[in-house]
Design a protein that fits this description.
mainly beta; Purple Acid Phosphatase, chain A, domain 2; 14% helix; disordered N terminus; Metallo-depent_PP-like; Poly-gamma-glutamate capsule biosynthesis protein CapA/YwtB (Metallophosphatase superfamily); Capsule_synth_CapA
Amino acid sequence: MAGGGKRLTLFLSFTLVVGGVAFVPRLLAGPADDRVATTAGGPAVTVRAVDEAGRPLGEQIVSLGNGPAMAVAQAPGHIAEPVLLGLEDAGKTVDVRLLSDDGGKRFVVNSAGDVMFGRRFQSGGDSGPQIPAGDAAAGARAVVNAVAPAFRMADLSTVNLETVVSSAAPSAAYPKKRFILESPPASVDALLALGVTVPLLANNHTRDFLDSGVADTSKALADAGLPVVGTAVGDEPEKPFQTTVHGTGVAVLGYTSVDGSYVNDSYPKTGAPTGDDDAWQYQPRTWGYGKIPTADRTIGQAWAAYERLSRAEQAAAWQSLTRTYPEIQDWVARRGHAGAARWDNRATPAQIHTVAAQSRLTIVELHSGFQFQTASAEETREMARAAIDAGAGIVICHHPHVLQGFEWYKGHLIAYSLGNFVFDQDFLSTFSSAYLRTVWDGDRLVEARLVPVEIDGYRPELATGQAARRTVNGVREDSQRSAQTIRAANGAVLTVPITRDPDTKPARFHAEHGTALITADPSKPTPVTVAVGPHTDTRIGFDGLIDPRQSNPDISVGRDLFGWGSFEDQTVDGRLAGDTHWGTAVADITDGYLHIGSAGGQEKLDRPVARIALPRHREEAADGTPLDPEPTYTIKAKVRTTGNATALFRLTPYHFDDSDPTEDPQSTPLRDVDKSTVVPSDGQWHEVSFDVQLGADGNMVLPHLGIAAGRAGSVAEQSVDFDDVSFVEWRPAAGVPDEPGAYDFVRNAGAQPVALSFTGYAS
């Protein structure tokens, strides 16, 4: 620009998390061509910011000496943007497009899923509780410190607070409710550290301590200056959160369809107990009310009689019923008691319509669906569409505890499940998470972005590299699947195909600086060719989704169901370590591999912290008939040994049964499947692969890696190193559903080499 034009400047701050403490070592302000290095010879990446027209705003070199990092790019007149930088970015230039703040009118909303601070956070492990009773506030802040610098970069933010916030005694909890979640009042400090504006309470744990628990939670939030949203009393409508953000009126409403009735419907009406644990369900008790004559009834029989009453009669009879049967579950506000705001097919859309008429942007959050399912539920889909038809600008859902897909409905975004955000579950599928970052100009959605998160040791950490891509590709696949979940007559949850209506489009995801831009633009197809020799497997090597179908019956496609066998540092936690999701009780993870040493011939094994889910089928017809072939499995790895050690792979399948909502789930180890190998102790890596038969009765598997026992005292020192460990699920490519998926491997069972062509959709 000629003459005295104003030069653009860049403020780039490198936010590093070290030991749970976030700090900004340097804040830069200067001309666009000024560069300041924050590295002293270690790995580094150049972050270069441009405006919406592509004009340069400036750049900065950011050190990766402490592992993956988050930088914050900000410039006057623009919206600050988090930038996730992985070790694979070292030596590269990462471009970041900054949005104009449109004269201060645009604003950012961050939305995350399920949050709690009790149970395993307080019971602790070998190193003690993360949130100790004596200093719960500091402990809770430490739990969220790694992700807080990114999540609080918003003008308004929401989470699903899935817990009672109270110090009530366990004896005050809801009788016979399977899972009771209670977090100490001081843990609200973590919400403040995250910058949460609206902690929503419309979920199935808000009433875990009955009405007194709802009151305790409301008080704890109010004492911290936070609103109470998503609760009500009886049939009263919930009170919406309404505020003004950068001149725009914004409202937030929350509802749940998870009300406890399914548990009550599952109580037996006849039969005999199987043991002491369920004997109470078969014990007759004397009860009657109004039209219901007094008689001896089991809890299931009493519930069946109660269900035949009118809505008004049910409200009148509720206290009488629960005095006799306190185990009857009701987790929502109705029948004269407090609880979570309940979705009602008539009243709820009417309330959304009324609130939307008062606020320019209305955000609706729904707690609905089936737990641990990656396809959205039919009921959730219907609720989300009804909310948008009533005036919601965006719908955000949670409850399944895992990520699900996104859709556009009539131009409005629906996030079907944001999974866990701060939670203590021990399933591998619940560790991958994300939060949704949206930028608004009034009620117009300017940009939507998925920010990958990984929950490690129950703590949320920003994900980078392969971990971030795996999370994004999983959500991409779920978004493009034309499928939904339903409950069959026998109680099983089925994933069934659907046909999208003309108003609905799957969301598309485009990778940008460690995050993913969400659009409605279709992904461009890319040809992917893979050559596979006879009777061999090979990695596909494509970053994205592929259409898997092949007519050749000898070809199978494979997914790595584990994903954490590379031992590379992929999370922003201030440590240069690749031990995410590994227990490392006997192993050492350094330099990007797992090392196990032994002396005296002893067997030594290490394992990841959670079991791998084994879905028997990924899609069924409405009658339960599978629509995909049976899976087979392979364990693959690179192995290096010293002292002629024998590498041992031990796979323990489990049967996890959560089919009875009235009883605690049962997890039963079935058998150990051992595979061992001896490779030359020549200092080189050797690829090994074993097909494994786990049996049809297991739906989870726990892998162990280590060194097999030898003759006692025969060898003084032995060791085995492992890298690139994969647990692969195979299905014949001719029979899988014809939809793009996140596949990693291809197998040729034939006697001739083949050159395969797939259609890919890059990240």
